[in-house]
Amino acid sequence: MLKVWGRRNSLNVQKVMWLVGELNLSHEHIAAGGDFGKLDTPAYLAMNPHGRIPTIDDEGHAVWESHAILRYLAARYGKDRFWSDDAFERSNYERWMDWSATTLQPAFLNDVFWAFYRTPDAERDWSIINRGVEQSAKHFGLLDRWLQGKEHMLGESLSLADITTGALLFRYYGIEIERPSLPNVEAWYERLKARPAYREHVMVAFNDLYGKR
User: How confident is the model at residue 83 (pLDDT cuts 50, 70, 90)?
Assistant: First the structure.
């Protein structure tokens, strides 16, 4: 059986669990990281030398790094829905996966969610937070223009592009920051919230992370 290590309120774990849910894969979810610990044990480090989450074990094959895990699961279990053997077709969602990891996520998760939400009030650096809010608005504005006339990021069907980017929305719309009007992003978010796997694995309360580094 597929095993997934990580805490439910970790964004990167949520990406993996969302795809697991969409693929309806039988799995065992093992709480790890944060207050659950386990990441510095010899057994865990043998699977993931970085001691971070998420990590999966699929019949003895350990895979770490959330986007690598998504690619692995899609290639093995989701070829009809989430994976293409055609290099160019595959690049359509891989470009957005990389953009999410290298551009959008650092601006929002690092400079807003961590610097604002997870940092105690007295320790907040508002120059970083304001930069993150501004850059996040810019990146989501680009996404809003891209989504014009589309059900999902690559058209009518959910893809890995939606999973890596859409997982951020529950936090982006769940904390008290200034946001621009993003009608296409907001409509897309409503469609994602209608998906059972999104509601179960992404819409997980994170209030216990407030002010907690």
Answer: very high
Single-letter code of the amino acid located at 156: E
3-class DSSP state of 119: coil
Note the pLDDT tens digit of each residue in 136-150: 999 999 999 999 999
Q: Which residue has the tokens 């805490």?
A: 7
Average confidence (pLDDT) over 21-33: 98
What is the arithmetic mean of pLDDT over 196-207?
97
Q: 123: how many CB neighbours lie within 10 A of its CB? A: 9
Residue 4 forms beta bridges with which residues?
A: 29, 56
Q: What number of residues does the chain have? A: 213
Contact 73, 23 (CB under 8 A): yes
Dmax of the chain from CA atoms? Answer: 51
In the sheet that holds 27-30, the strands lie side by side as 27-30, 2-5, 55-58, 61-64
> Quick one: DSSP state of residue 16?
H
Token pair for 177: 């920051």
- Do the beta carbons of residue 120 and residue 181 sit within 8 Å? no
- Whether the pLDDT of residue 80 is over 90: the answer is no
Q: Can you give the pTM of this predicted structure?
A: 0.97
For 21, 138, 146, 169, the CA distances from 141, given in Å and listed in that order, are 29, 5, 9, 13
62 φ, ψ to 5°?
-90, 135
